[in-house]
Amino acid sequence: MRDSGLQTTCLMVCCLFGLPSLASAFDFEEVIEKAEALSRESYQSPSQAPDFLRNLDYPAYQSIRFKPEESLWHSGQSPFQVMMIPQGNFYAHPVKLHEIDGSGVKPVAFDKTDFDYPNPELEKRIPADLGYAGIKLTFPLDGDDAQNQFMVFGGASYFRAVGKGQQFGLSGRGIAVDTGLPSGEEFPTFTEIWLERPAADSKSMVVYGLLDGPSLTGAYRFVIQPGENTQVRVTSELFFRDDIQQLGLAPLTSMFYYGENTVRPEGEWRPQVHDSDGLLVHDGQSGEWLWRPLVNPSQLQLSFHEVDKLNGFGLIQRDQAFHKFEDSEARYDLRPSAWVEPAEAWGAGSVVLVEIPSGAETNDNIAAFWKPDQEVKGGESRRFAYDLTFGGPEITRHPSGQAVNTFLGDGNRTGGGDEPGAYRLIVDFQGDKLRALGAEDPVVSQVTGGKGVEVMEHFVEYVDASDVWRLSILAKPAANEPLAVRGFLSLDDQPLTETWTYSLEPMTDLRSNSE
Fold first, then answer.
1. Which residues in 213-272 belong to E strands, given as ranges?
2. Are 207 and 229 in contact (CB under 8 A)?
């Protein structure tokens, strides 16, 4: 395969982690110039894979296996290697790949023999010039003799990453355009990728991407450092062909089928099924941490969390114990969280949460992104940079009490209450400040309801059996209004916990069964 020898001269480049590579004179400005020039042209959709590949079902597509020994840089001394993704199924178009090293920039030529195919009939139908659909990055996370997949670029502008010991779950995306709007979503795609070859002692690598879509183009630089957590500095330069109603920056995509705060679908034996169980937002103006458990709604649901100064947001998998899921194959307990922190002030805007009805765990039905208040007009350009971390839920560096459980029940039965049309909500909080308290400390609950919601009672108690402070709420929504509630715990008028917020539309889960 195409693998040049190590260069004898390492050209040092400054990057986020201050580590060397074998890069030549190629830099981000060249990608920016390509994106700007492309934005002045009419949009042309990328060429599609042959029908017989796009029509492969997922198991058949998965049976096409890349040969690890054909990985880019396999014969060199770099700890990083690159595996190729075949076209087929929903990987429906080629992505031009380039390698950057001390000798310059050269294309990564397609070679059909890089793959093992399930049968000779399929292999002989693969065109010799088909092209790859994306890349998988590997690094020895489990020791020098291992090459662990830690990041994947493939499908539209999607990319996924994990920390050490995790399994792939939620995805990042280059950009989101009109996600959740009735007009329909646009899916720009990475059409070209450049891979900067790291030096033998490098702990990070750089990937560049050219993005193209009907309404915009973009140049991207990813500085990537794998480890216990995988850290990515994302820098993007966007050029807008047209006005965009809802631009989504630093978008994350995940799956929530059901959880402890929803009704288990009929016939399901597993306690929970989800890649993420909540949205976390850190308001830099007020210092508030806001936690919003995810739901699988009966109809499309958009939530807007307005923030004048954003410190961070992310989709988090707080449930990390196997018994929370009992799924020995999917291992949802090993799915990563993702946390976004702007590298500079983004101004006023909203963290948007999109929840889409789903009848199966195979659908990514959750999206979260930053929507700036400033309108996006055709002919404009903008530059954004942010740090994106994939890893355990502790990547947020959240200092206050956290909601570790949310339970929902009928408010008109034993254990819930005796109020028809009401709901019992139970929220368990844990955290260092709470652990330092005793059951006799005067912790109080602060709870409010949204439009049409009557908060009938709320109280807090320490539960010794599970070492949590439990907030219990009885709330009654109006018939056609969401069950929208917010609450937190405090001591001496000082918050002890994040603000827990919950919203359940009419005809969703328990509400459809009890109204």
1. 216-225, 230-240, 247-254, 256-258
2. no
The percent of the chain in helix, strand and coil, each rounded to the nearest 5, is 10, 40, 50
The DSSP string of 378-390 is: TT-EEEEEEEEEE
Location of each CATH 2.60.40.10 domain in the chain:
402-514
Tokens matching residue 125:
């139908």
Contact, 256 vs 277, CB < 8 A? yes
Q: Look at the alpha carbons of 317, 322, 324, 329 in this order and tell me if their dihedral is positive or negative.
A: positive
In a 13 Å sphere around the CA of 132, the CA atoms on its Cβ side amount to 27
Contact between 169 and 276 (Cβ < 8 Å)? yes
pLDDT tens figures, 4-24: 333 332 333 344 444 445 555
Amino acid at 289: W
DSSP SS3 for 124: helix
CATH 2.70.98.10 domain extents, the chain: 28-396
Please report the pLDDT score of residue 8 as a whole number.
31
Inter-residue contact 300 to 353 (CB < 8 Å): no
Q: Phi-psi category of 440—alpha, beta or left, where left has phi over 0 and alpha has psi -120 to 50?
A: alpha
CA pair distance 421, 136, nearest whole angstrom: 51
Answer whether residue 171 shows pLDDT above 80.
Answer: yes
Among 3.40.1190.20, 2.60.40.10, 3.90.700.10, 3.40.640.10, what is the CATH number of 402-514?
A: 2.60.40.10
Mean pLDDT in residue range 225-241: 98
Cβ atoms of 163 and 336 within 8 Å: the answer is: yes
CATH code for the part of the protein at 28-396: 2.70.98.10
What type of residue is 177? V
Residue 4 to residues 69, 70, 76, 197: CA-CA distances in angstroms?
Answer: 15, 13, 8, 11
Sequence-distant (≥ 6) Cβ neighbours of residue 414 within 8 angstroms: none
Encode pLDDT of 128-167 as tens digits.
Answer: 999 999 999 999 999 888 899 999 999 999 999 999 999 9
Amino acid found at 46: P
Q: Kindly state the percentage of the chain with pLDDT values over 90.
A: 87
Mean of the per-residue pLDDT values for the chain?
A: 93
- Residue 155 CA to residue 57 CA, distance in Å, equals 16
- Beta-carbon contacts of 192 under 8 Å, excluding residues fewer than 6 positions away, are 34, 95, 96, 97, 98, 209, 210
Q: What is the pLDDT of residue 321?
A: 97
Extract the tokens encoding 261.
Answer: 């705060």
Amino acid at 54: R
